[in-house]
């Protein structure tokens, strides 16, 4: 009996020793497989200022406050966001995993207002349309809209506006000619103009006029516009010349208009924003923070949630329209 008990104890000790040996080997094996906790992580900074995405290699637990806020023209850095549309603020104090950060800014409205008065406003015009009967009768005004000068050559200045501002109503049953006038930003001189082209499916039209004065030719933005970005609308709503309103982009969407299709028959996604516009703003420019044309305003209304919104033809569609017109306008894109 004694020998048997000793033998069993010996087996127990041997099994325990084997277990401990296997455990030690397992720990060593796991350590050699590279499963150690990382000490550094990648942070991807989307700066939205013309620079490419910046990659930082930082220690695990790096404080977000240590990341320097980027600089952007006519803007002040606000905060970092989790998404490209700037809807969710990144509110963690520490970085614990690979992260994408998107820069949000506040527009420096004082600086922007100075730049608008110095140069940009000179590119914004008011367009008036009159009917002149081919028989005896008085000339009557039928429409007023806005426009933006986008090109200049030996034949004059070219302004972009909406088709529904310039097109002849189909309901009229009498014979007349349309006369177009352009009022510059000072609204002291009225230039006789001519319509070069118009297209209802883009709700865009081109007006040309000549002047001995020099005007600013507004540049276009070639970049996509995401939600949450600063925009500035300029136009002449309700006869109030050179009204400037500020807002943010809300995204893109399709709209249903009350106009007849021959006036405006836009079926593609348009740029939605909340910079206020009204009747008379049609055809006016929507500028980005760099005062580049990001869209052409053409309507306003309700988004179905009780929110008043404005809509613009995005520059990507403006460039498509230029290709359709052809000629000198093909080179603008």
Short descriptors:
333 residues; alpha+beta; Immunoglobulin-like; Thrombin, subunit H; 3 domains; six-stranded antiparallel beta barrel; 4 helices; disordered N terminus
Structure description:
The chain has helices at 2-32, 109-118, 163-166, 315-325, and strands at 40-46, 54-59, 62-63, 75-81, 94-95, 99-107, 124-133, 140-153, 156-161, 176-183, 190-199, 204-209, 230-235, 243-253, 270-273, 285-287, 293-302, 308-314. The longest helix is centred in the N-terminal third of the chain and has 31 residues, at 2-32. The chain has 3 domains: 40-107, Sandwich (Immunoglobulin-like); 112-117 and 220-332, Trypsin-like serine proteases (Thrombin, subunit H); 125-209, Thrombin, subunit H, CATH 2.40.10.10. The protein is elongated and about 90 Å long. It has a 6-stranded antiparallel β-barrel. With 333 residues, it is an alpha+beta fold. The chain contains 4 helices and 18 strands.
Helix content: 10-25%
Class derived from helix and strand content: alpha+beta
Total separate domains: 3
Provide mean pLDDT, rounded. 86
| Biggest sheet character | 6 strands, antiparallel, barrel
Low-confidence stretches: 1-32
Mind sketching the topology for me?
Layout lengths: L1 H31 L7 E7 L7 E6 L2 E2 L11 E7 L12 E2 L3 E9 L1 H10 L5 E10 L6 E14 L2 E6 L1 H4 L9 E8 L6 E10 L4 E6 L20 E6 L7 E11 L16 E4 L11 E3 L5 E10 L5 E7 H11 L8
């Amino acid at each position: 009996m004694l020998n048997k008990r000793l033998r069993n104890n010996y087996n127990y000790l041997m099994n325990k020793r084997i277990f401990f040996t296997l455990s030690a080997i397992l720990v060593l094996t796991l350590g050699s497989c590279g499963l150690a906790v990382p000490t550094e992580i990648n942070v991807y900074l989307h700066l939205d200022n013309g620079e490419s995405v910046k990659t930082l290699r930082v220690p695990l637990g790096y404080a977000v406050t240590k990341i320097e806020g980027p600089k952007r023209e006519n803007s002040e850095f606000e905060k970092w966001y989790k998404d490209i549309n700037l809807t969710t603020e990144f509110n963690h104090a520490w970085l614990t995993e690979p992260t994408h950060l998107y820069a949000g800014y506040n527009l420096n409205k004082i600086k922007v207002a100075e730049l608008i008065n110095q140069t940009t406003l000179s590119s914004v015009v008011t367009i008036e349309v009159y009917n002149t009967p081919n028989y005896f009768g008085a000339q009557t005004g039928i429409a007023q809209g806005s426009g933006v000068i986008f090109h200049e050559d030996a034949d004059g200045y070219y302004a972009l506006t909406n088709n529904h501002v310039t097109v002849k109503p189909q309901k009229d049953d009498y014979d007349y000619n349309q006369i177009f006038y352009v009022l510059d930003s000072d609204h002291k001189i009225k230039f006789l103009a001519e319509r070069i082209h118009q297209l209802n499916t883009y709700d865009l039209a081109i007006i040309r006029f000549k002047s001995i004065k020099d005007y600013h030719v507004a540049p276009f933005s070639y970049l996509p516009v995401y939600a949450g970005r600063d925009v500035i609308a300029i136009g002449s709503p309700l006869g109030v010349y050179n009204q400037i309103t500020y807002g943010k982009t809300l995204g893109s969407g399709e709209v249903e208009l009350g106009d007849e299709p021959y006036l405006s028959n836009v079926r593609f996604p348009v740029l939605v924003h909340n910079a206020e516009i009204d009747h008379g703003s049609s055809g006016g420019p929507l500028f980005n923070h760099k005062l580049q044309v990001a869209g052409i305003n053409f309507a306003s209304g309700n988004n179905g949630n009780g929110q008043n919104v404005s809509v613009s033809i995005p520059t990507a569609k403006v460039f498509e329209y230029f290709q359709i017109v052809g000629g000198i306008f093909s080179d603008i894109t």
